[in-house]
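Subject: Sanity check before I submit

Could someone independently write out the structure tokens for this chain? I want to compare against mine line by line before I put it in a report. The sequence has 149 residues.
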Amino acid sequence: MGTILKGVGRVRWHELKHAYGSAEDVPGRLSRVAWGDTRTSASALSDLGLWLGELAVFDATVEAVPFLWDLAVTDTVTSRTGVIELLQTILEHANPPQIEVQQAAHRAVLGGRNLADALVRDEDPGVRAAARELVAAIDSHVCESCRPV
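---
Independent answer below. Compare away.
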């Protein structure tokens, strides 16, 4: 699939779940965000938001977060601001029946803190603003499942 989304084909998406069932369509939506025009990218990102983070987080969310970080830092992606906002949404949502999935999803977002720092200095003002909000959310993240033991 190119240098962005490298490794997306190695994930066993058909074995993972999102809010509406099988995650087998996630790679296609990630690809549309990566290479689609503004309208295509925004539509695919909307689907990913519903599937991966707006209702709760899922095992597919955990696998998708590294690819979302990849998209967020790639200048040619037309909806980078929305990708950054989705990362923040994932950090803010839970999955109480599956605390270990929630923790893994949150840690995947938290692990990209250095990328968020770079995005705060991006040339695009929308990206900079979204990145500042994400950095603030990362720095203030204190959910029960992510507390150190």
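---
OP: Matches mine. For the report I'm noting this point. The chain has a mean pLDDT of 93.
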